[in-house]
């Protein structure tokens, strides 16, 4: 795993400042919270849009990802494309939504480079990244409301920054911004599953992914189902890894979503079947439909899985 000059928080702050400067054209709102924190509403009480979603994906990846939207051919041609030459830091140290931020009735999972400063998740026992020169930080929340003061204080204490040096970005799942930033996690879910499969993180040297952008839906369950299905049944990821061809082959075979016992149903139906308990769902479901793994030291490439058009039609149309 590399870091070099990978300043996750500094890079993300620069991108967040750009969003604030361009708030009008991005269709977002910037304000100051009760404790002086910066708050960016990217789709709750404002229109937001695809560009705002793409910017948030870049922020979530700590500036270590290249993110774009493309219009290709096919039934679901509008897609988010992400790539990173430091995927462990971009996806696991920053983008992964692994920080539980709850207070009374408020609940959100925190994503973004502030996680790398707080280091409250077990994952950081395996990621040694440190950023001593950081002076501010950004956290992204998939929710409909800004964080209450108690959450701001929690993040402030964990990161060591005063609230005025923190930026909170939020967008609901039901918004177009939210849909884009969620499917922009297609590479991240592959990285997280590779970690769960005990593949050596340091052997993953590069990665790219794409997934279709689903239409937003005002119903939370349907919106959540569509964004998950876009990755589970429509996502493609390629990883470049060090090591043997056999290790690359095994990773390719185990990584796609079809290896999960819960594969084959729309995510909304799965969620309802388990009565809304995320932890009852097979975690191996959260992975791309199609995986390509290239062993860079042998030149061999292995493919597994495939786009599930019937399931996409059932969910996205």
TrEMBL record:
Pathway linked to the protein: One-carbon metabolism; formaldehyde degradation; formate from formaldehyde (H(4)MPT route): step 3/5
CDD domains: MCH (cd00545)
Location in the cell: Cytoplasm
Catalyzed chemical reaction(s): 5,10-methenyl-5,6,7,8-tetrahydromethanopterin + H2O = N(5)-formyl-5,6,7,8-tetrahydromethanopterin + H(+)
Protein origin, superkingdom: Bacteria
Broad enzyme group: hydrolase
EC number: 3.5.4.27
GO biological process: formaldehyde catabolic process; one-carbon metabolic process
GO MF, one annotated term: methenyltetrahydromethanopterin cyclohydrolase activity
Keyword presence, Cytoplasm: yes
GO cellular component: a single term: cytoplasm
NCBIfam families for the chain: one_C_mch (TIGR03120)
Family designation: Belongs to the MCH family.
The protein's role, per its UniProt record: Catalyzes the hydrolysis of methenyl-H(4)MPT(+) to 5-formyl-H(4)MPT.
Protein name as it appears in the record: Methenyltetrahydromethanopterin cyclohydrolase
């Amino acid at each position: 795993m590399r870091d070099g000059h990978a300043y996750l928080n500094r890079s993300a702050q620069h991108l967040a400042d750009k969003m604030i400067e361009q708030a009008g054209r991005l269709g977002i709102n910037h304000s100051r919270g009760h404790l002086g924190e910066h708050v960016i509403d990217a789709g709750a009480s404002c229109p937001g849009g695809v560009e705002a979603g793409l910017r948030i994906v870049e922020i979530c990846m700590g500036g270590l990802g290249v993110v774009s939207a493309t219009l290709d051919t096919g039934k679901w041609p509008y897609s988010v494309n992400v790539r990173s030459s430091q995927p462990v830091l971009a996806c696991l140290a920053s983008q992964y939504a692994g920080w539980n931020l709850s207070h009374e009735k408020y609940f959100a999972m925190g994503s973004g480079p502030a996680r790398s400063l707080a280091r409250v998740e077990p994952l950081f026992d395996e990621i040694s990244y440190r950023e001593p020169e950081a002076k501010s930080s950004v956290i992204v929340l998939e929710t409909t409301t800004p964080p209450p003061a108690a959450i701001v204080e929690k993040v402030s204490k964990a990161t060591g920054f005063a609230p005025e040096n923190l930026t909170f970005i939020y967008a609901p799942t039901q918004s177009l911004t939210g849909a884009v930033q969620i499917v922009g996690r297609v590479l991240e879910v592959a990285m997280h599953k590779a970690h769960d499969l005990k593949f050596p993180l340091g052997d993953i040297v590069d990665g790219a992914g794409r997934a279709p952008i689903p239409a937003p839906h005002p119903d939370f369950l349907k919106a959540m189902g569509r964004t998950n299905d876009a990755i589970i049944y429509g996502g493609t990821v390629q990883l470049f890894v060090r090591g043997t061809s056999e290790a690359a082959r095994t990773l390719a075979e185990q990584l796609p979503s079809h290896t999960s016992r819960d594969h084959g149903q729309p995510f909304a139906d799965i969620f309802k079947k388990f009565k809304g308990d995320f932890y009852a769902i097979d975690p191996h479901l959260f992975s791309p439909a199609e995986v390509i793994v290239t062993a860079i030291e042998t030149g061999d490439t292995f493919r597994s899985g495939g786009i599930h058009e019937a399931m996409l039609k059932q969910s996205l149309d």
